[in-house]
Amino acid sequence: MSFLYDFGVENFFIENLSYFYQSVIEYDSWTIYNKKELLVVIKERGMFSMEQNSTFLDRLFHLRENGTTVKTEIMAGITTFMTMAYILVVNPNIMSSVGMDKGAVLTATALAGCLGTLLMAVFANYPFGLAPGMGLNAFFAFTVVAQMGYTWQMALAAVFVEGVIFIVLSLTNVREAIFNSIPMNLKRAVAAGIGLFVAFIGLNSAQIIVANPATKVSLFSFKGAILSGHFATTGVPVILAIIGIVFTGIIMVKKVKGNVLWGILFTWCLGIIAELTGIYKPDPTMGAFSTLPDFSRGLASFVPVDISPIFLQLDFSQLMSLNFLVVLLAFLFVDIFDTLGTLVGVSSKANMLDSEGKLPRIKGALMADAVATTAGACLGVSTTTSYVESASGVSEGGRTGLTAMTIAVLFIIALFLSPIFMAIPAFATAPALVIVGFLMFSSVSGINFTDPVEAIPAYMAILAIPFAYSIAEGISFGIISYTVLHLFTGRYKSISLLMYVLTLLFIGKYIFI
After folding, report:
1. Is 80 exceeded by the pLDDT of residue 93?
2. 242 and 208 in contact (C-beta within 8 Å)?
3. DSSP reduced 3-state for 216
């Protein structure tokens, strides 16, 4: 038995030669006239050079069964980590704004990311990274604490209860049933919408796309940067990000292994050179940070900060209040559909869904997310969830829990090498997000646009995800429009009972929460 990853054909048994014969033809558009010639091609490409005895990692993560290798999985894990490592900088900044210890939050963020991703590897053997979620952390700090007036300890208690509820829902197959009830066209639409979302995040983080009071968003103004005298601070990073996007696109076309990761490192190196030569001038007050690691604290720079100021600081005194219930429901809604949306989008792009559009071992993936959320609350961080940036590792060939294991290890290493990881600027990771967004958006080609009843809900989901800046809202728009259109065009029998229930829940959410 041999798995032929170079051809992009997964789950292949050499005994099933006819299946592979057809797959190769469809994949590479080669002209191969018989199986004998195919075997010659396989032999010439060294497809039988893999060891007969499986390695420990192969047996543990089923690498050959998933058409991948140790090297590919590790590279994929590094790539995903590099694209989501920004959370180690952003989360402490957001959470500390409401009085939480910034250093302790950094340590807790890394530990939560490590634990959650490790659980994903163990429970589901999937290449998804987990960490405290963006958006959820902002809701935690700016809405629950800053606007609603609750303490961060009470907000952590809400996150903990949310995690416990998720564990129950995962054990009772409720979350799995929701995943399976979403029509295939909507799943492809969610993947495409996430692609636009990820690309927008990348463009915005590099300041290629900026806020504009008149038009909401606009392109960065090089002329404005020059006239203001800040071009070396604000304009140069934009140019470097654009160069990085072009470079990553070129090496992707050239089929260079690890192209997304190489794109990050290339752009970072350009930034370092630009800073050392004075072309780029960092200014933290303008959001332009140094690309050089900060070792000013000596050996102390490599020592993780104690998390005791936020560890197990849960306040359940408001548990039975109506306001606590509102906060809890808000956390529940956003997290459950953000997670499902990420799993839908990334797994569909990686061809992990079966013929019925279901994700095998989804219960393990959802359980990992639930347990990580509960444990993360104890550590002192907001909801821990699956990261859409996992798509970057999947695009590099990551298919198993070994990719997730690599991410988990890197989170631990980041605790001790935080000055190095923290030095990677946003404009260096932006090219990865833009290119990954393109790869995910390609799922739009699988949507049936010939039937408006199917196409319009898919279109609504694609639009809503980037414009509402929420995967959950994209799913909401898609499901509501799908149900309404089918109901009022006489095709109500094709809608499952659960889709009706979800539609009512989504409508109720907009009215009451």
Report:
1. no
2. yes
3. strand
The per-residue pLDDT for range 177-188, each reduced to its tens digit, is 776 777 878 878
From the number of C-beta atoms within 10 Å of its C-beta (0-12, 13-18, 19+), residue 145 rates as buried
- What digits encode the pLDDT tens for the residues 124-142? 888 889 998 766 776 777 7
Cα 313 to the center of its chain, rounded Å: 28
Buried b / exposed e over 196-210, threshold 16 CB at 10 Å, is bbbbbbbbbbbbbbb
Q: Residue 201, SS3? A: helix
Q: What is the pLDDT of residues 322-354, one digit of tens each?
A: 777 777 777 777 677 667 777 777 777 667 777
- Name residues whose C-beta falls within 8 Å of residue 456's C-beta, 6 or more positions apart in sequence: 481, 485
Specify whether the CB–CB gap between 276 and 394 falls below 8 A: no
Contact 462, 197 (CB under 8 A): no
Q: What DSSP letter does each residue of 327-372 carry, written as one string?
A: HHHHHHHHHHHHHHHHHHHHHHHTT-S-TTS--TTHHHHHHHHHHH
Instruction: State how far the Cα of 332 lies from the Cα of 235, in Å rounded to an integer.
Output: 40
**Burial category of 302 from C-beta neighbours within 10 Å (exposed 0-12, middle 13-18, buried 19 and up):** middle
Give me the helix-helix angle, 471-488 and 184-205, nearest 10°: 150
Query: Taking the CB of residue 146, how many other CB atoms lie within 10 A of it?
Result: 13
In angstroms, the CA 223 to CA 133 distance is 36
SS3 311: coil
Please state, in angstroms and rounded to a whole number, the distance separating the CA atoms of residues 52 and 55.
9
Cβ contact 88:364 at 8 Å: no
Distance, CA of 205 to CA of 203 (rounded, Å): 6
Residue 148 burial (CB count, 10 A): 14
Written as one string, the DSSP assignment of 440-458 is: HHGGGGGS-TT-HHHHHHH
Contact assessment for residue 263 and residue 431, using Cβ atoms and an 8 Å cutoff: yes
CA distances from 27 to 4, 10, 65 (A): 12, 12, 19
* CB-facing half-sphere around the CA of 233: CA atoms within 13 A: 14
Residue 164's alpha-carbon distances to 159, 177, 353, 371, 374, in angstroms, are: 9, 18, 27, 8, 6
Per the rule left: phi > 0, alpha: psi between -120 and 50, beta: everything else, 357 is left
Phi, psi of 386, deg, nearest 5: -70, 140
Structure tokens at 367: 């359980």
